What we know:
Layout: H1 2-29, H2 34-38, H3 45-54, H4 61-73, E1 79-80, E2 85-86, H5 87-122, H6 127-141, H7 144-158, H8 177-214, H9 218-225, H10 230-241, H11 243-268, H12 273-282, H13 286-314
Antiparallel strand pairs: 1-2
Helix pairs in contact: 1-13, 5-6, 5-8, 5-11, 5-13, 6-8, 7-8, 7-11, 8-11, 9-10, 11-12, 11-13, 12-13
Amino acid sequence: MRTYIIRRVAQMIPVFLGIMFILFLLLQLAPGGPSNMLMDPRMTVEQKEELAEKYGENKPFYEKFFNWIVDAAQGNFGNSITHKKPVTAVINDFIGNTFLLSSLSLLVGLLIGVPLGIVSATRQYSAVDYAATVFALIGVSLPAFFFALLLLKAFAVDLALFPIFGLADPLLRKADWLTRTLDKAHHLVLPVTVLGMTQAASFMRYTRSSMLEVIRQDYVRTARAKGLKEKVVIYKHAFRNAMIPIITLLGFSIPGLLSGALMTETIFSLPGLGKASVEAVSQRNFPLVLGINAMLSIVTLFAALIADLLYAAADPRIRYD
């Protein structure tokens, strides 16, 4: 197992370099640059060239990329142009909120989607199955931004049950810990619902299709013939063997939630990495864009590794010796 992990981590390095090379190239091909956002129309040509030189825009592409990789390997992702501090510090300021939103959404998706998929598969063609299938189709088809706007209109504007934007009430900054925690939870209800329901729909579909395939296997019929309880047959024998596709989806969901929070955080105006990355793109804050995407790339690669390791835990026949 240790050898496999070391080999996989070694394989991640060229993949990460390839991802960052493509992203770096796309940013270089994009019109404008960091210096364009800071230029004064009254600047002379010499002053504009000096500003471009300050941000390294006059250097060849390969030299800029090589310098960025060398600095990134040392933990230096540059300085955020608009925040006036290191990119790592900016990411550290926002990652907590994004992680909280993504974790709660994933938890909601698992707690709703997986049990619903199991019930739907074991009661195929029943009213529950049809209702769950309709829910999954709506959840997968409905765009997250449109769903978010519907919830805002219904529950924040019309009924005024939840805040329209933000993650905390500024009037409660000096309140006790419990009050501030409940206030943050109140602000997170709608964003978590948007991301959580989308995840629940995906988990429900994968769980249902995987369970339908497994419960028709001979060993499941044999377990029933031996007189085992239906719950033991479903949850101990069938569900464990149906977990492989669910683990695969889980591996893709972890980085997908971080990137999916981009639109949700923007709509609900939540101070997270998603909103920060949208602002960084519009402000040509390329160091921050590169830093955030580098972090997302690393999370994606390690999520795939964790999914592979979970395969062995779910199915004893899988070995990485």
